[in-house]
């Protein structure tokens, strides 16, 4: 008796599917990091390595805390959508990745190491989702 696999109807997915999965998971991680960063800014703004005046856009840490909290939450939701192969999630992931990278560039003087890591992860997510996001459905 032979077993036939009917679950695949098309060609096998490319290796880039792993990169898109990594992007979805990375969105979850960076979103979680941004939520943590936002909460820290809201609760303990004295932990920053610079004052609000030293930032590229001199706005108080409460404002940036809320920005990070919102971006982080939307990033987590987009990450879940990317893992399910949703087109809307890919668009949101690219937009949120761009805004998140920009907001972390602004915060770079206050949290240099942390922000540099998040910017690098955002660039990776943008590339993977834009170039190979549709392959996740396969």
UniProtKB/TrEMBL annotation:
Report the protein name in the record: DUF7144 domain-containing protein
User: Keyword Membrane, does the record have it?
Assistant: yes
Residue spans crossing the bilayer: 20-43, 63-80, 87-105, 111-130
Q: State the superkingdom.
A: Bacteria
Please report the organism this UniProt entry assigns to the protein.
Actinoplanes regularis
InterPro entries given for it? DUF7144
Any idea where the DUF7144 domain is?
Answer: 19-134
Any idea which UniProt keywords this protein has? Membrane, Transmembrane, Transmembrane helix
């Amino acid at each position: 008796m032979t077993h036939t696999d009917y679950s695949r109807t098309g060609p096998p997915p490319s290796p880039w599917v792993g990169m898109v999965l990594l992007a979805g998971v990375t969105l979850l991680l960076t979103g979680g990091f941004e939520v943590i960063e936002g909460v820290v800014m809201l609760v303990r703004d004295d932990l920053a390595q610079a004052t609000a005046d030293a930032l590229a856009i001199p706005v108080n840490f409460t404002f940036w805390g809320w920005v990070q909290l919102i971006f982080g939450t939307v990033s987590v939701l987009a990450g879940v959508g990317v893992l399910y192969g949703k087109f809307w999630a890919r668009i949101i992931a690219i937009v949120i990745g761009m805004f998140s990278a920009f907001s972390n560039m602004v915060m770079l003087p206050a949290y240099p190491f942390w922000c540099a890591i998040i910017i690098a992860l955002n660039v990776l997510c943008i590339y993977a989702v834009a170039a190979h996001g549709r392959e996740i459905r396969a």
